[in-house]
Amino acid sequence: xIGNADxxxxxxxxxxAVITSLRKDGSPSSSVVFFAREGDELIFSTTKDRxxxxxxxxxxxxxxxxxDEGAPFGYVTVEGPATIEDxxxxxxxxxxxxxxRGGPFTPPDGYEAKLRSDGRVIIRVKAERVSGVPRxxx
Length: 138
Fold this sequence. Notes:
The chain is α+β, with helices and mostly antiparallel strands. The chain has a single domain (5-133), classed as Pnp Oxidase, Chain A (Roll), CATH 2.30.110. The chain has helices spanning 5-13, 51-58, 90-101, 111-118, and strands at residues 16-22, 28-38, 41-47, 61-67, 75-85, 120-126, 129-133. A hairpin with a 2-residue loop joins strand 2 and strand 3 (41-47). The radius of gyration is 15 Å and the shape is globular.
């Protein structure tokens, strides 16, 4: 479980989030990401040359604000340390694709080579604090 039952239900029903990480000077940097859940952690993909990966490498403290896609626009924010994975990234990318599509995803031939040539990494967020207002129910 990441948060309480309502927060977990909200996280499980949504797929968009805003990741906020910290620049070297301490100022925040935010961007929208598509995320998936793996156990009690949230994951998303980026490339190692993007600001998200660079800021997480320098300071692992992040906040991932999961967004509701419809009114009344609830949200759940997951705060905690993030790690960057560049080893066996295919299973997590498959999971992200399945979450995005709402069903099974079979990677095409050359999938891992494409991920590697694009410089893809997985950023994994472990929840230490969870807050928000998950108002809407499906």
